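Input sequence (342 aa), recorded before submission:
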Amino acid sequence: MVVPELKSDFRKLNNMLYQSYLPAVINAAVEAGIFEDLSAKGKSAAEMANDLKYDYAILSAVLDVLFSAGLAEKDGDIYRLTSLSEDFMLEKSDANQITGLRMFSGSSGVLDRLGEYLREGSSSFNNLMWSSEDAASSMEKFSMGGPVQSAVSFVSEQPEFKSCRKMCDVAGSTGYFSLALIGENRDLRSDIYETSEVCSLAQKIRKKEIEEGLLKFIAHDCEIGSPLNGLYDIYFCSNFLYQMGFEDRLEAFFMEVNRSMVTGGLFISNHIAPPSKDEDRITVSLVELLTRCMGYPTHQLPVEKLEKALSKTGFGDFRREEPSDDLPFPVVKLAAVKICEV
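Predicted structure, C-alpha cell format:
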C-alpha cells in the first residue's frame, strides 16, 4: 500500500464541505421555531426541548451549530440570539431573510429530515453502514488525506515502536492504518478486529496482505469489549471509543485492553477531541449534529477522559500530540504504556 505524500492541507477543503450543510440547519431551525423561541428570553437546551417537545440530543446539537456559526450566543448553558439572528431570522423583523434563506437549502442527505429528528428523535444507528466496498473505500481515501500520515508519524516516533511485533487494531476497518504502520516496521503483524461483514469484505480487498501473513481479520463485536486473543505489544484504537466515553465505559474496556497486552506494551488512541480553535468549531459541531441524527451519541472524546480511565487501569507514561492544523478534524493522538497488570 502506498501512502501518498500531500502538498496541501485537507482541512481547508473539509471545512468548506461541512459548512455547505449550514443552510439546511439554519432553515430547519427557522421551520422548527428555534429562533422565535429564543427571541423572548435566553433558554437552556433542556428548557427548549421541554417547551417545544423536541429531542434533547438533536436540539442541543443544532444549538451548538447555531452558536458556532455566530447565530446564537451562550452563557453557561443558556442560549440567546445574537444581533445577526434578531435582524435576519425573526418574522417580526422588517429585514428578515427567511424567504431568501430557503433558496440556499438543497439536499443535505441526513439533514433533509432534521425537522423530523427534532420532533421524534434520531433513527437507530446502523453499524453496518461502513461494511460496503464503496463505504470502506471512501473511508480509506478520506484517511489518506492526512489522518494516516499523521498517525504513522506519531506512532513511529514512540521509542517502543520498532521493537513491536504483534499489533491489535480494534475496529480497524480494512486495515489501512495497520498497513501504513507495517510500512514503518516490517517485523510488525496486525490482528484487525471488525464486524463479520467488514471481515468478509477485507478477505477480498486485502487478499494479498492476508496471504503474506501481514494482516489477520477476526470477527468481533468491539462494542461489547476488547478482544482477549493477545498478548499484544501495540494496541491501536482510532475513531472508535466515542460511545464508550459517552457511556462511561472506558475503564471497563481498558481493563480488558490491559489483560490483552504485554507489560511495557504501547496503547495508541487517535480520536477527535472537542474543538479548541474557532475555525474548527462549525465543522465539528456539524459533524456532531450529523452523528446524533444518525443515532450515534457523539463523535468527540476529550483526551483528559481517556487519560483518567487509562491511569486507573494500569497505564502511564502518557505522551500527547495536540491537533495539527493540516488535518481535517482536531484529532488528539495519545500514547500510553502498560506499566502493570490489573
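Checked by second reader. The chain has a mean pLDDT of 92.
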